[in-house]
Amino acid sequence: MYAAGCQILQLLDLTLAEINNSTQLLPNISLGYQVLDCSLDTDCLDSTLLFLSNKKTMYVDSQPLMYKKQTDIKAIFGPSYSATALGIGGIISASATNQKLSNKELYPSFMRTTPNDKNLVLAILQFLKGIGWKWVSLLVSADDYGSDVGKSFTELAPEYGLLVEMRKVQFSLFNQSVYYDENGDPPFGYDILLLRNQGSEFVFKSIGVYSQKTRQESIDENWVLFLRNKTDEYNCHLCPKAHWSPQGSERCFPRTLRYLSWDSGIGVGLLVSTSAVLLVVVATGAVFALKRHTPVVRSSGGKMAFIMLASLLSSCICLYGNFGMPSTLSCHFRTLSELCFTVCLACIAVRSCQLLCIFKLAAKLPKACDFWIKDRGQYVLIFLCTVPQVVISIYLITGDVPVPEYFEKDMVLLTCKTYNPFLNLSYNAALILLCFVFSYAGKNLPDNYNEAKCIAFSLFICIVSRVSYMTVITVYKGDTVDFHIACSLVNVSAAYGSYFLPKCYAILLRPELNTTAHFQSCIQLYTMQKSTH
Question: What pLDDT is attached to residue 273?
Fold first, then answer.
């Protein structure tokens, strides 16, 4: 007995128990049942003969059962399938739906608890008419059930405006003509599919088609990955440049391109950080522009402070060229990022030197101080400090700076490569040391002009970050673009934090410090302390 038959038997047992235990359904009457296996046609025939036969002999005598007025058998529940029920007849079925069983001349005692197939066909036809279909293709099972349903469907379909596909039908579907030949065969061919391994899953890719009409196939050669050399099947051959092959394999697989994409986890983090620093620099520039006539902004160098902000802003903008697939242009942005930061370092060095000249060397070198103040000597020195890095940048940009491809097994690493990355970093490292010396020499200046501690600390951070980055590019042979962005952000943030952050604090949160009287008192206090020594 099949599993479905066992479930029906359990349901029957439960139902009879409920009826027999009820005082309202059939009082004083107990129902019982006898189970005979009817899972298969052969089993059903044996069960039927056993039911009709004399228990003591194999002689079948149906008269005592059919005509005896007093009998304990009140109903016979037959098989579920129509094909089996057609051979038994006088039963009650829960799922035999064949229309022939409704013929009372052939099956006078047959009953069922489910609609016949004609109702099913009518329901399907009504549904197809409701959704506006005009033609259908009919597929039925190869038995009495399928034959009767198909016949009924075909006869009733024209009444609902439906066309059941015959051999003479011809129409267009998805830009392809659909018809049948004299043998009833359609003109379809085959799609040629390629099973590809993409990471942790396999996917199918259509690489061509086979036409039954022309008996020709069309294949997209770009998707054919079976690059095995048929002329020499016993010796290993190298895969093409953009492919790789595992050891012992007869196939070559395309390498995966690797670079810092915009939507990667690291890429998004660095992109957000770069944008945040850029917005802070822009906001600071707006604050300085609005307060450009105040003592704090003027003591910060005036126009020189805006040059520093512009250099920091340009350095951040250049960092965007490191995201996405690298190109020769994006590789040049790395060089320009260092050049922009050079301008900021030159301003810090000149600013520190300027304060030393004003407060400590004005009396000893008056002509030099006059040149510095009146003839814009500070801007000349900024230009001279920037020229070496300009020469280095021109040397690197005008040269052949390709985007090399480093192959590592299944990966193609696209990265930028200059003649000497240390050359692009070394000059700024030397300039950082020069700024550190000037800042330390001005540690005893008036409080409003004394930026030595903050600048010295930020320059120390820059030195550490650059030493770390140089170590990484020396040891690590892969793409270091994420380290480059992180190092640049640290340098820009350190320079901004040491020079502009204290001044923004005084302008926005401590306006009493941003007055001429406060600055004059600090200078007088410095002069008095110096005279006492």
Answer: 93
3-state DSSP assignment of residue 203: strand
Bridge-partner residues for 405, per DSSP?
414
- Structure token digits, residue 260: 């810092």
> How far out from the chain centre does Cα 439 lie?
49
What per-residue confidence (pLDDT) applies to 229? 44
Residue 51 CB neighbours (<10 A): 15
CA distances from 529 to 298, 360, 443, 445 (A): 24, 14, 14, 11
Q: What is the pLDDT of residue 315?
A: 92
Torsion of CA 41, 46, 51, 55, to 10 degrees: 180
In angstroms, the CA 493 to CA 267 distance is 19
Among 445, 411, 407, 409, residue whose Cα is nearest residue 522:
445
User: Which of 158, 149, 157, 160 has the alpha carbon at shortest distance from 99?
Assistant: 149
H helices present in 225-291, as ranges: 265-290
Say what the pLDDT of residue 228 is: 46
CATH 3.30.420.40 fits 118-178, yes or no: no
Q: Which residues of the chain have pLDDT under 50?
A: 66-67, 228-229, 448
* Residue 207 to residue 437: CA distance in whole angstroms: 67
Could you tell me which of 352, 426, 425, 337 has the C-alpha nearest to residue 382? 352
Give the Cα separation of 300 and 284 in Å (integer).
Answer: 13
**What's the full length of the chain, in residues?**
533
pTM above 0.70, yes or no: no
Strands (E) across 255-388 are located at 256-258
Which residues are CB-neighbours of 482 under 8 A, at least 6 positions away?
260, 266, 267, 270
The pLDDT of residue 192:
83
**Locus of tokens 């200046």:** 445
What single-letter amino acid sits at 242? A
pLDDT of residue 158: 84
Distance (Å, whole) CA 456 – CA 460: 6
- Token representation of residue 40: 């298969």
Tell me if residue 19 falls in helix, strand or coil: helix
C-alpha to C-alpha distances, 42 to 37, 84, 491, nearest whole angstrom: 10, 10, 89
Q: How far apart are the first and last CA of the chain?
A: 114
- Site of tokens 């942790």: 200
